[in-house]
Design a protein that fits this description.
By secondary structure, the chain is α+β, with helices and mostly antiparallel strands. It has a domain at 14-76. It is 30% helix and 16% strand. The chain is globular, with a radius of gyration of 15 Å. The termini are far apart.
């Protein structure tokens, strides 16, 4: 994820979004949305976070597909021209081998 010379805020490209796993850490989702970590924490605590998230122990993870939908992207927008998902796509966090169902 590249850094802008003019600002310390990360810039997310379509290639960056294309390589995301099925869930991302809440702090990463906050960055992708463009909000501060403290605002993200507050919104999650208030139940007002804009996309679904899950709590695993003390860790919070955001579901990638709804995150992308919130950004106005569809999952098929992230596929390559042949219409296949990127090689990094996984099911339940396990990378799928070519030809596997």
């Amino acid at each position: 994820m590249p850094q802008s010379a003019a600002a310390s805020k990360p810039e997310w490209t379509l290639a960056d979004l294309r390589s995301l796993p099925p869930t991302v850490p809440a702090r990463q989702a906050d960055s992708i949305i463009g909000m501060s970590i403290s605002t993200g924490k507050r919104l999650r605590a208030e139940g007002a976070y804009p996309v679904p998230w899950v709590s695993i122990g003390r860790h919070h993870r955001v579901l990638t597909a709804p995150l992308l939908a919130f950004l106005g992207l569809r999952v098929d927008d992230l596929s390559d021209p042949a219409g296949t998902m990127p090689a990094q796509a996984a099911v339940d966090g396990v990378p799928q081998q070519e030809g596997a169902a």
